[in-house]
């Protein structure tokens, strides 16, 4: 890893292997790396058990499937991660509110 990448935040996605959530975790990692290509140093996929699906960065929990009672929409994860690692970054259409809200 380059020194520049090492200085950028690490994002961890811990997923349940028993539930076969690797593809979901991999897809989310790909989306986060695409959106935050200049703000993330790495994304780690961490195998777990017991129904876990958690996203962490900078020592903070970004999303917990157990705490929230559901999987996140990608928009929610991007907004929460942005608020932790790059608060000034605009997310384009992901920042727009639903007209119904």
Automatic annotation (TrEMBL):
UniProt keywords, alphabetically: Redox-active center
Species whose genome carries this gene: Dongia soli
Pfam annotation, one family: Rdx
Protein name per UniProt: SelT/SelW/SelH family protein
Family annotation (InterPro entries): Selenoprotein_Rdx-typ, Thioredoxin-like_sf
PANTHER family, A to Z: SELENOPROTEIN DOMAIN PROTEIN (AFU_ORTHOLOGUE AFUA_1G05220)
Nucleotide-binding listed as a keyword: no
